[in-house]
Design a protein that fits this description.
This protein has 3 helices and 9 strands, in the order ββαββββββααβ. By secondary structure, it is of the alpha+beta class.
Length: 140
């Protein structure tokens, strides 16, 4: 029985949304490794009702993750994983042999809607300071 259909609200042709997917508890991370000129991205979705509905992507206020040093053809989001409050995203074509990026909520916090919103709001207020704490978060 299908319980939800997740989509990127900023999707474009050939983004490859869903090329990689990871789930832990109420959080789903979805890679789109061809998005934005093959730079790639990963979308974070959450549910609070057992999967009947999901908030996430860009418009619904959670996170769209991207590499802080993204370049064309990096394929960020080609592989994603999640464990507790840490999300790991691979950029298989980045640099000389690929890169892996780790994103986490603030130390001592569980990744909840509240901590994701906190990271996002901090990024809007001062992107450099927020990226030092949370990693790179893009909301568009």
């Amino acid at each position: 029985v299908e319980v939800a259909k997740l989509t990127a609200d900023d999707a474009a042709t050939n983004d490859r949304f869903g090329g990689s997917v990871a789930i832990a508890g109420n959080t789903i991370v979805v890679g789109a490794h061809y998005e934005n000129g093959y730079r790639g991205s990963a979308y974070v979705f959450r549910t609070d009702d057992g999967g009947a509905t999901y908030d996430g992507g860009v418009t619904n206020g959670l996170a769209k993750l991207s590499a802080s040093d993204a370049a064309a053809y990096d394929s960020f989001g080609g592989s994603v994983a999640i464990d507790g409050n840490t999300i790991v995203v691979a950029a298989m074509q980045a640099g000389t042999g690929g890169k892996v990026y780790a994103f986490t909520a603030m130390a001592g916090y569980v990744m909840t809607d509240s901590t994701i919103y906190t990271a996002r709001d901090a990024w809007f207020a001062d992107a450099s300071a927020a990226e030092a704490t949370y990693g790179h978060i893009s909301t568009w």
